[in-house]
Specification:
Layout lengths: L3 E7 L5 E7 L2 E5 L1 E6 L9 H7 L3 E4 L1 H6 L3 H6 L3 H4 L5 E4 L3 H6 L4 E3 L4 E4 L6 E4 L1 H11 L3 E3 L11 H25 L15 E6 L5 H14 L3 E4 L8 H11 L9 E3 L5 H10 L3 E4 L1 H7 L2 E4 L2 E4 L19 H5 L2 H10 L2 H34 L1
Parallel strand pairs: 4-5, 4-14, 5-6, 10-11, 11-12, 12-13, 13-14
Antiparallel strand pairs: 1-2, 2-3, 7-8, 8-9, 15-16
Helix pairs in contact: 6-7, 7-8, 10-14, 11-14, 13-14
Length: 372
């Protein structure tokens, strides 16, 4: 089994409650996926992620390629085994990270030449190389190598970016199909193999997005992502692009919006029909003392919490809120204790995962009510 997608309930607004069956896990969707950039979700142990209910996490192709190296990870049995994560996993293509190295990269039709942010050494990523790295890492889902468009971008720039993305998508798919048997856990007898998603680009131009989506769907990827969002554009424009693209993607395959967003955003997008989302925000914000709660955002470093004996969120049942006070969490931040990042991250991740749990339950309840 490689991938199957079973829709359990649908809403009038287009939301879907579904099950995404992957080689390592059946994932309940819509789902938020914690980001594990370098083989770990920063500051949070894998067993805690399991306890919080995380069913799928991300790995970062660019960072893992640089350190410790995809070939070393493959020799150790693949990324699942290397990081002791038995559940589902997705790896990005490395395209966004290379995009972010604007002053250290050179883009050609063949691929992208760039310098490592670690030591300045020179490297080259082509669609084929991105596939080789991701096959070696062995996540359940790999992503086609794409060219991300910055914001703002003139139409000519967006058109050129789209041209590269389409050419690279075709090369990614061809190379992946020819080499996916090299995934560490590939099993021809059972059909257990790695899946590949295409990525819709096109900047903030709806006609280019439509063109990209239609051409990718014709290539028949295992699933589809909407990329190139949350790159500085207004939130209204992000929403517009998602609403334009979603109806163009197959209803019987998972739909993934990359790199979003704030809690209210992921809830809104899930209710529109987005099945998968990821973002570094919960853990990044946690490391900077920003906590998300049912009563609004909390900067736990604020002096007002110095002797506050209440939990971060009285409506949260996460391990942090059940045990620790705001005063203690503030103290950890003020003292520079590493535990601060861990506890803050656990709470924020729980908050995000619980949003999706609530959205899924609401979709199921709504569907049941409609059939009564």
């Amino acid at each position: 089994m490689s991938l199957s997608f079973d829709v359990i309930a649908e809403t009038a607004a287009g939301g879907r409650r579904a099950q995404l069956h992957l080689p390592h896990r059946t994932v309940q969707t819509p789902v938020f996926m914690p980001v594990g950039t370098a083989g770990s979700v920063k500051a949070v142990p894998q067993n805690v992620l399991e306890e919080l209910g995380a069913e799928i996490i991300l790995g970062n192709t660019y960072h893992l390629y640089l350190r410790p190296g995809h070939e070393a990870i493959a020799r150790m049995g693949g990324l699942h085994k290397f990081i002791s994560w038995p559940r589902a996993m997705l790896t990005d293509s490395g395209g966004f990270q290379v995009f972010s190295l604007a002053k250290l990269r050179k883009v050609t039709d063949d691929g992208v030449k760039f310098r490592s942010h670690l030591d300045g050494s020179s490297h080259f990523f082509s669609p084929e190389h991105s596939m080789d790295v991701q096959i070696a890492l062995g996540a359940d889902i790999a992503m086609a190598f794409d060219e991300c468009t910055e914001y703002p971008a003139e139409r000519r720039r967006a058109e050129e970016s789209l041209r590269l993305t389409m050419a690279w998508a075709e090369r990614s798919l061809t190379h992946h199909r020819e080499n996916r048997h090299k995934t560490p856990w590939f099993d021809a007898n059972t059909g257990r193999r790695q899946n590949l998603f295409g990525i819709v680009q096109g900047g903030m131009y709806t006609d280019l997005r439509k063109q990209c989506a239609e051409r990718l769907v014709a290539m028949d990827f295992d699933g589809y992502a909407i990329g190139g969002l949350s790159v500085g554009e207004p939130r209204e424009l992000t929403l517009e692009m998602i609403q334009e693209v979603l109806p163009l993607l197959p209803k019987d395959k998972p739909r993934y919006v990359m790199g979003v967003g704030y809690p209210d955003e992921i809830e809104q997008y899930a209710k529109l029909g987005v099945d998968m989302m990821d973002c570094v925000l919960p853990t990044r914000a946690a490391r900077h003392a920003l906590l998300f709660t049912s009563e609004g955002r909390v900067n736990i470093k604020n002096k007002q919490y110095a002797e506050d004996q209440g939990p971060v969120d009285p409506n949260c049942d996460c391990p942090v809120c059940q045990r620790y006070t705001r005063a203690y969490l503030r103290h950890l931040m003020q003292a520079g204790e590493p535990l601060a990042a861990t506890l803050n991250s656990i709470h924020n991740l729980a908050y995000y995962l619980n949003i999706m749990k609530r959205v899924r339950a609401g979709m199921e309840a709504g569907s049941a009510a409609e059939t009564v």
